[in-house]
Amino acid sequence: MKLLLTNDDGIYAEGLCALYNALSLEHEVYIVAPEAERSAVGHAITIHYPLRVTKVKRGKKFWGYAVSGTPADCVKLALYELIGPVDLVISGINRGANVGINLVYSGTVSAATEAKILGYPSLAVSIDAYEDVDYCFAANFIAKFLDVLKDLPLNKPFCLNINIPNGNPSKIKGIKFVKQSKARLKEVFEKRFDLHGKAYYWQGAEEHTETDEDTDVLALKQGYITITPIHFDLTNHNSLKILKKHNLNFNLDF
Amino acid sequence: MKLLLTNDDGIYAEGLCALYNALSLEHEVYIVAPEAERSAVGHAITIHYPLRVTKVKRGKKFWGYAVSGTPADCVKLALYELIGPVDLVISGINRGANVGINLVYSGTVSAATEAKILGYPSLAVSIDAYEDVDYCFAANFIAKFLDVLKDLPLNKPFCLNINIPNGNPSKIKGIKFVKQSKARLKEVFEKRFDLHGKAYYWQGAEEHTETDEDTDVLALKQGYITITPIHFDLTNHNSLKILKKHNLNFNLDF
What we know:
The structure is a homodimer of 254-residue chains. Chain A is α/β, with parallel strands linked by helices and 254 residues long. Chain A has a single domain (2-182, 210-245), classed as Survival protein SurE-like phosphatase/nucleotidase (Stationary-phase Survival Protein Sure Homolog, Chain: A, 3-Layer(aba) Sandwich), CATH 3.40.1210. Chain A is 25% helix and 29% strand. Chain A has a nine-stranded mixed beta sheet. Chain A has a two-stranded antiparallel ribbon with strand order 9-10. In chain A, 52% of the residues are buried.
């Protein structure tokens, strides 16, 4: 397969490198990734500044294109300009899980969503750890997963969000197809003061409040590799159906 | 009502000012908005830098809080820290329509979505023009719309994406509840060279390719005020249902 790899941790991230190493023997692999970390940028795109592209080498060999923009910029620029059509776009391997509400903020997931928007199948891949991350198992899992991908009942362009537990692979309980959790995050803001006495705020999310075991949040916590098919249909169709039946008496002459 | 106003055009934007003027006589209105333009930032949040907050005056009177972050940051910071609970969050009035695929990239819409995530009802309001924008009619429309909002069959927290045609109000054909268009955008990248001979790329979207009249894109073009109820459920439930029935034969011992 002709593969495009990207991420939101930047072109020098270990997760991207692990994925390249696991996939480049059997596939034709291209890399277009942000020049530096762009996490939590959501589906931001760069329209007020031009994008710069730098060729990055590993050793003496060309390795990939570093882009001065966001993950979504990378996917657009790769598919329209730098690489052209591919068979599959893979975003990751992200350091830290991308489950539940966090999908909305995730650059990793947005890159995969962007591929689907442009008509290409895609995977977003994340690993559930920030320290002592075992990218090797996750990368090898994705390599094996590509072999079974064609047998899955999926319409193109699909977009799968994959999260992988960290640690001892023999403790992984299996693979589960689950929905995105929509449970609230426990969030915190902390007000601090700089050396000049001026206030600033840090924000952070503490924990998911999910209790439904059929969600990505809990299945991952329980030790499963989770797979969630993603779309970008933001219409609340149930609500729309009800609103359409409503007789809105509204005079626009005011 | 206690209202929180925000936007992605920045706290000094005319659309925000028009909204404030139209709403502040009858409602308790608070403003927390980006210190400068933050359009096309999607649902980005700021977690790697602290957020700064500046009080902004108009004349001698306190006007609102300017935040060094994104629209989604503003909503979080306002509801958690600066203002507390409100009855409704309104994001806008945005210069330029937010319909179709562009919802994914829109800071205006993401601010409203963020309110819904946090459990608050919200409106995203945009006007379909970049030049000679008549914010006055749109702001007055929203003021009138707030009176009928309680009669609409909506479960809280709802999020409505509202787009308003520009120009002669008497030519507006009515209000239409429609779905988000998912049609591809015609996009362009243009490669240019700077004064040092180094390449850079501009990206831009040209036109929607939509043909379905029951979408926000076409209804707005035809002269309707469009209203689309928005959710943040990214799971493709149809695909998930099919995947769950699939017997995935996958050996994790490799």
